[in-house]
TrEMBL record:
This is Cytochrome P450. Its cofactor is heme. It comes from Ficus carica. Keywords: Heme, Iron, Metal-binding, Monooxygenase, Oxidoreductase. The lineage of its organism: Eukaryota, Viridiplantae, Streptophyta, Embryophyta, Tracheophyta. Belongs to the cytochrome P450 family. SUPFAM superfamilies: Cytochrome P450. GO terms for molecular function: heme binding; iron ion binding; monooxygenase activity; oxidoreductase activity, acting on paired donors, with incorporation or reduction of molecular oxygen.
Length: 390
């Protein structure tokens, strides 16, 4: 589909065959991306992995939190609990400390809302993207609001960097104990050589990309997973049976077990099919005129790949709107992330607890609506009850 959005020609790809042409056959012509005007706020024009033991530790803490709620008979806000786990994992990896111990605290709530607000503004239709001459005017106030959100996050990271610089000065330690210390050492070493600088502004923006990409997407996907499993209890039972057979009752799920859990892997892949984290992917830009399926795509055109539509194409999938982990082969676009935290978190939650919906909600009446943003999230938070498996 071809759209003329102001001065910007936009091509929307909604079939697997056309997406293959853009992303594989002609990938060298579409390697570049269009940059939304909102991203230019604070000159921000992105993810790193943690070690295995640390991921295991954070999942154990997640299970402890859920266990406490189970004993108290309280419902769990799945997305909040998962967001806390992902955020603390990144904080520990990057800074060797946990800033956000309580997912009900004002700090974690504000951080989460700020990250979502950034993604919402970046994903919103912006006249300045379609009429570049309006960039300085910012007619919808999107860049102004995004600048405020960016500065909130930058202040958070800036304070941490200041603390690390002060600690370095007081102790004289230059060891690479975590990612932030490594980046600071690189920054100082490059400055001393008068080389191309990795300055603190660059570090702050890098941290924003890593935290934005590694927290909300993971927690949202886990929330969709639990929601779909609550709608399909027979799928949940089959997954729990696989976990019991492979892991054994009372044993902890480890990353090394994932390769032996094909049904759990199929569930995660099916979640990505039905609920892709970025439904239109990130926009690409044509480097020159190119012909695809008889249509000429002009140089500079914006390309949007509609993964959501492709994943629900009835010519490819039988009953495409149904959650069916056994429906066939497909690949997960976030494979490095999914193999680790998503499988580990979902497998651990299913192996340790039985899950059910809150009173008054049935699999047929559970709200599965999503809300607008650059990422796909549930419109209403999922709250679920669980019983400890004995």
């Amino acid at each position: 589909m071809r759209l003329k959005l102001g001065q910007l020609t936009t091509i929307v790809i909604s079939s697997a065959a056309a997406a293959r042409e853009v992303l594989q056959t002609h990938d060298r012509l579409f390697f570049n991306r269009t940059i939304p005007d909102a991203i230019r706020a604070c000159q921000h024009s992105d993810v790193l992995d943690a070690n295995m033991n640390l991921r295991h530790k954070k999942v154990e803490e997640l299970l402890v939190d859920v266990h406490k709620s189970a004993q108290a008979g309280e419902a769990v806000d799945i997305e909040k609990a998962a967001f806390k786990t992902s955020l603390n994992l990144l904080c520990t990896t990057f800074f060797s400390i946990e800033y956000l111990a309580d997912h009900e605290s004002g700090t974690i709530r504000e951080f989460k809302e700020t990250i979502w607000s950034i993604k919402k503004e970046v994903g919103a239709p912006n006249l300045a993207d379609y009429f570049p001459m309006l960039g300085k005017v910012d007619p919808q106030g999107i860049r102004r609001r995004t600048t405020i959100y960016f500065r909130k996050v930058m202040d958070f990271f800036g304070n941490i960097i200041n603390q690390r610089l002060q600690l370095r000065e007081e102790t004289g330690s230059t060891e690479d104990n975590d990612v932030s210390q490594t980046l600071i050492n690189m920054m100082i070493n490059k400055q001393s050589r008068e080389d191309e600088q990795l300055d603190r502004t660059t570090i702050e923006h890098l941290l924003l990309d890593l935290f934005a990409g590694g927290t909300e997407t993971t927690s949202a996907t886990l929330e969709w997973s639990i929601a779909e499993l609550l709608k399909a209890p027979e799928v949940m039972s089959r997954a729990q049976a696989e976990l019991e057979q492979v892991i054994g009752k009372g044993n902890q799920v480890k990353e090394s077990d994932i390769s032996q859990l094909p049904y759990l892997q199929a569930i995660i892949k099916e979640i990505f099919r039905l609920h892709p984290t970025i439904p239109l992917l990130l926009p690409r830009k044509a480097e020159k005129d190119v012909e695809i399926f008889g249509y000429t795509i002009p140089k500079g055109a914006q390309m949007l790949v509609n993964v959501w539509a492709i994943s629900r194409d009835s010519t490819i999938w039988e009953n495409p709107n149904e959650f069916k982990p056994e429906s066939g082969r497909r690949i997960c676009p976030g494979m490095p992330l999914a193999i680790r935290m998503l499988h580990l978190m979902l497998g651990s939650l299913l192996h340790t607890f039985d899950w059910k919906l809150e009173d008054g909600v049935t699999p047929e009446t559970i709200d599965m609506e999503d809300k607008f943003g650059i990422t796909l999230q549930r419109a209403k938070p999922l709250r679920a009850l669980r019983r400890i498996i004995t």
